Amino acid sequence: MSCHWSTAAINQTRWTLLRMYTTRMKPVSYKNLHELTISDEQVAIAMQNELAERISLCLNELSYRQRAIIELRMQGMTLDEVGDVMKVSRERIRQIEHKAMRILQLPHTAGRLVMFLDD
């Protein structure tokens, strides 16, 4: 499965990695800064980690029950299966899932993931 990252996300990640490298090393003069190179693999790993962290922050906006339902549904479980696990009806699962999705679509929540969208 390949991911297509936005140019802004890639550039931001490259600068973040550069800052991390320069703070962990001896002080680097500006003339040496251009000599630092970051591989595409390092950028991809950093972006995967950043995306996972931001998704986690978004899910933390939900209640425990909402988060559990979203996670079970993303694993491919049907409303009936999730209802059996949570001991409620499929209609109640649908209602809770709907409310959770509305929370995740709020600007302050969804905005955390905007940089990862394609240009």
Characteristic terms for this protein:
mainly alpha, elongated
Helix/strand order = HHHHHHH
The residue fraction in helices comes out at: 55-70%
Q: Work out the radius of gyration.
A: 20 Å
Q: Provide the structure class.
A: mainly alpha
Residue stretches low in confidence (pLDDT < 50, at least 5 long) are: 25-30
Termini separation: 19 Å
Give the biggest sheet: none
Q: Could you tell me the number of beta strands?
A: 0
**Domains, number:** 1
Give the overall pLDDT as a whole number.
78
Explain how this protein is built.
- This protein has one domain.
- It has 119 residues and is an all-alpha fold.
- The radius of gyration is 20 Å and the shape is elongated.
- The chain is 67% helix and 0% strand.
- It has seven helices and no strands.
- The relative contact order is 0.14.
- About 5% of the residues have low confidence.
Secondary structure topology:
Blueprint: H1 7-24, H2 30-33, H3 40-59, H4 64-74, H5 79-86, H6 90-104, H7 107-110
Give me a quick take on this structure.
The chain has 119 residues and is an all-alpha fold.
